[in-house]
Amino acid sequence: MDHKQLRSFVASAETLHFAKAAKALGVPRSTVVADVRKLEESVGAELFARDVESTQLTDAGYAFLIEARRQLDASAAAAAKSAPAPGGKAKANKGKGRAPKVKGEPLPYKKRQGR
Fold first, then answer.
1. What distance in Å separates the CA atoms of residue 45 and residue 77, rounded to the nearest whole number?
2. Which tops the pLDDT comparison, 83 or 30?
3. Residue 11's Cα: distance from chain center in Å?
4. DSSP letter, residue 39
5. How many other C-beta atoms are found inside a 10 Å radius of the C-beta of residue 13?
6. Residue 88 CB: number of other CB atoms within 10 A?
7. CA 76 to CA 99: how far, in whole Å?
8. What spatial distance separates the first Cα and last Cα of the chain, rounded to whole Å?
């Protein structure tokens, strides 16, 4: 399953509001709704009971929420495990004080050419 769809579902399930979930994820609401619908199609069950007044999780939604959180936690742990260790080889400064090149300025450590 797509992790983007799982994150959209978990955020929507925690807030029970698609617009708030979209704001928390930093994406448009239509993206969250589309992700949840695709996830419902791949699961084969309705995860939300959509009503005019409110949005609630179905029994299948509650069961899938536990599994979705488990999958996201497992993928986050695997990503942290495979991340390179901090630190590394120190890079030495090359040459004599590399100054940024400014238009019209003579190059550092160069004499001006006579005319």
1. 28
2. 30
3. 13
4. H
5. 21
6. 7
7. 42
8. 71
